[in-house]
DNA sequence: TTCTAGAGTTAGAATAATTCTAAACGTAGA
DNA sequence: TCTACGTTTAGAATTATTCTAACTCTAGAA
């Protein structure tokens, strides 16, 4: 369901370079973690993983890195109704989400599986629509 | 566009009683403010108004009151992608929103003006869909 | 190679939103 | 009138995130 781009550190480094982001060790590791292993993690979940798996890293670096990756268009930052934490999404295509209200887990819904039609007042110009379907996974 | 239920304090008191919420002065005033005057306010905007317009009120009471009104089903709490603040909505019917990304202002979109169709994986059971249309008001 | 300016990282403090604590207060009903 | 319980309060605590200012690294320039 989720597109997972599992790349080697060298390929990650290339992607960072292409995006104009200096590929530091911390950025390579965090970006690869989110691309390959993590599922819609929060900053704090990334920090937990990083503290276990990298030599030493500060909270500020985790936030800085996530912010840098989002600014560079390599990650999306999401805010969902059930939580006050920002969620980082390696899926940067326009897409929608299903929220399992029991577990709090988020699932991607491909753009083409969701159709939205709407009528807006005159003078309202839309340039994006976000859909969150809430429910349960049985 | 937004349904505005402008009621007298006595009518507000009745609504609170009906919902099983003791109609204290603070609750009546805040609930009436959100029903009649405020447009998708944050807790802090409610606090600002309350400090100006009520004899004395604490921040905790504002949060307590908003929480109580949401629990009683008299307000909706919203979390939107552009802000980390909870937004309180007197419109408790299912409805959608338009976010003016320039001003940050939220507009209600009636349920019937938005149509969503989606295809979910087996075992996914939806019980609500939230749509946020983002764009500009010219 | 060495130098160096700018970019990145860091610990810790600061800020912002919200919640908690424990005492004081008010009020509905016995 | 009394009292139990719900409500309000000031202030502290918590949580998520950002800022500060010093230290460190690294990409080029020389
Ligand atoms: Mn509204
Ligand atoms: Mn916060
Ligand atoms: Zn996603
Ligand atoms: Zn609304």
Tell me briefly what this model is:
The structure is a homodimer of 138-residue chains. Chain A is of the alpha+beta class and 138 residues long.
Determine the structural class of chain A based on helices, strands and strand pairing.
alpha+beta
Kindly report the name of the CATH homologous superfamily of the largest domain in chain A.
Winged helix-like DNA-binding domain superfamily/Winged helix DNA-binding domain
Radius of gyration of chain A: 17 Å
Secondary structure tally: strands of chain A: 6
Structure description:
The structure is a homodimer of 138-residue chains. In chain A, the strands form two sheets. Chain A has a three-stranded mixed sheet, with no helix packed on it. A two-stranded antiparallel sheet of chain A has the order 1-2. Chain A has 138 residues and is an alpha+beta fold. The first copy, chain A, has four helices and six strands. In chain A, helix 1 crosses helix 2, helix 2 packs across helix 4 and helix 3 crosses helix 4 (59-71). The first copy, chain A, folds into two domains: 9-88, Winged helix-like DNA-binding domain superfamily/Winged helix DNA-binding domain (Arc Repressor Mutant, subunit A, Orthogonal Bundle); 93-135, no CATH class. Chain A has helices at 9-18, 25-36, 43-53, 59-71, and strands spanning 76-79, 86-89, 95-100, 106-110, 114-118, 124-137. Helix content of chain A is 33%, strand content 28%. Strand 6 (124-137) of chain A pairs antiparallel with strand 6 of chain B. Bound molecules: manganese (II) ion (2 copies) and zinc ion (2 copies). One zinc ion binds at residues 89, 91, 95, 97, 108 of chain B. One zinc ion (ZN) binds next to strand 3 of chain A. Chain A binds a DNA duplex (30 and 30 nucleotides) through helix 4.
């Amino acid at each position: 369901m989720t597109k997972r781009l599992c790349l080697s550190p060298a390929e990650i480094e290339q992607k960072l370079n292409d995006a104009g982001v200096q590929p530091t060790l911390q950025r390579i590791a965090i970006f690869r973690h989110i691309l390959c292993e993590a599922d819609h993690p929060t900053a704090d979940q990334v920090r937990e993983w990083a503290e276990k798996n990298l030599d030493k890293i500060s909270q500020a670096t985790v936030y800085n890195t996530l912010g840098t990756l989002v600014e560079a268009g390599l990650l999306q930052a999401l805010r969902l109704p059930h939580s006050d934490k920002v969620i980082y999404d390696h899926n940067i295509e326009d897409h929608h989400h299903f929220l399992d209200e029991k577990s709090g887990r988020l699932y991607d819904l491909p753009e083409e599986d969701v159709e939205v039609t709407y009528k807006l007042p005159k003078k309202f110009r839309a340039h994006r629509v976000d859909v969150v379907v809430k429910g349960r996974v049985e």
